[in-house]
Amino acid sequence: QEKNSVIQEKNSVIQEKNSVIQEKNKRHVITVEETNKVIKDLNVNIEDVSKWAKSLQKEMQENLENHNEVANWANNMKARLDKIDNSFLFRNLEKYLIHKESLANIPKKIIKKLLPTSLLNKYRFHKQKINFDEVKQSVNIHEKIIIAFPIITWGFRFQRPQHILKELSKKGYTIIYLSLTMAPKGILFDSIEDAGSSVNFTKLDENIYKIWLHSYENINIYTDHISDENLNNLSLSIQSALKVLKPKGITYMVQFPGWNRLVFDLKSKFNGNVVFDCMDDHAGFSTNDDSSLKEEIQLIKNSDIVISSSQLLYDKNIKLNDNTIQVKNGTEFEYFNNSNKNGKLDYLSDKPIIGYYGAISDWFDMDMVEYCAKQLPDYNFVMIGATFGCDISNAEKIDNIHFLGEIPYKALSGYFAYFNVCLIPFKIIPLTLATNPVKFYEYISAGKPVVSVELPELIPYNEFCYLAKDKDDFCIKIDEALHEKSQSKIEDRMKLAKENSWNNRAEEIYINIRKYNGQ
Asked: Which DSSP state fits 385?
């Protein structure tokens, strides 16, 4: 019985499994049938898609044929238009017929097209001469010119270079001032006429003209040596101007040694006198390398006259050139003497104003100014000038130091009028040891007290200014200068400034040039 019971249970299990298998088989049959139906439907759709694809392919082929036909037409039309555009005659007829350009211009253009390049350059140069008319008229009156090879652009920080040239122009010279910006042409001029067609003049002042030149490639006269290619273009350009102006006498006034090659190239072709106005110890500038200093030595040796702005420069230059003279800096006396407040610094006038204007660079002792400003919090320190090369990050955090940036020379006196005490806070380094500071003469033109470090060039004037030994002494001297009550000192300063005017300085140079020429 037990065995029969076990057998029955097993049979029951087998029946259940069979039921499951039958159910699965049933589902499988349904799935297959459904799948076959889907396949049949797909076959029908594939036939439709195939018919549609064949129809689309036929349509695309027809469109492609049409497109090729249009493309061929467009290419043929472009070729015809290019042929017309490249035709000089058709191009100018179009300007006349469509743009109504005068027929009179067409023969001129045809002539220009047919002319050889050399003749065309002469034609352009002839047309360009019209721009020389005013300059030529000035040269015809004065007969002699000064070609200035500058250290700065004419409108930037008007100082010795511009003042001396301006005064010399009043003594009978036409001044030709080279532009420091020379547009690179990218080609070599092959003749004076070729170069002359690109030369232009602009008027800077009465009888003072800037000449705009084209170099071969970019050139920075402060750092770059004049290459053969640049020398070719610059020299031919200036020669073209001289060919038109026809001066009877030429003085080459060199203010920076970087022009050395160009100057003597021109002298070899047109004669004239080379005058080097040595106003700085160029060894003290970080931008000058050994080759630049060698070029300066050549310039000093070969110049007809060397002008030195300080005793130290004179002592150095006289060893290289016997014809060395000393002409110190000066002042435009009336401009500074007649200065009036412009209202711009009224907001600082509640305290005494201790002022400086000029370059604020690596030779400027900013540490000393910061120290004095902290020691004298009841005074406002006004700094006017570009600060390139000087770290002013700490000074800007001090409340009573005010940086106004660069201010044009023409507007400067309106700010200068506010100064109660004027500063010359230079570092004592080789560059400044050779400096005869222009601002000293300008400051005292208004009789203002000046506090400076002990520069060699100012020691002879120690009774006209306050010379400090160190930063503590500098602070003391500022306070002394501010409380100065002597009217006679003010008058003595103004008298000294008047004796050192730019007119007097230019007269010294004028006499020496005439003397050299045996006049």
From this structure: S
